[in-house]
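Same chain as my last thread, 157 residues:
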Amino acid sequence: MPARSSPQALARKHLDKALIPYRMAADQARPPKGWVRAIRDALGMTSRQLAARMELSQSTITAMEQGEAAGTVTLNTLRQAAEALDCQLVYALVPRSTLEETVRQRADLVARSQLARVHHTMRLEDQALRSDDLTAELERLTDAVLMAKASRLWEPL
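reply #2:
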């Protein structure tokens, strides 16, 4: 299909490949008290010692660790904590499925929406398509949607 050779399709292919290790890592649950606390505890470092390394107060470290566990800590704060723990912060958005699957599913949804409107009108005029013709038309429309401007794919239905 021509849409697969588009710049967006090529970018999706490369990004999907690069995301494979992150997809596997995303299956690993964050420790209940957060990564900073887990790493600090595993190193045998106290919150006071981490505070000294970060040039912050011990209460700020406690608040940061609680913020991480609650999901409210900033990336900048995590980056600073990682540096103080001799770690590196890895940040990624990991799609639940491949980007290619996401785009194809959305194109299918857009095509179904378009086809439903047309098919409804055709039924009213007693010109409804047969099931196999509907399937073929859905495939054709899905391919057409994939070949159209990529941003149109995400317009409200």
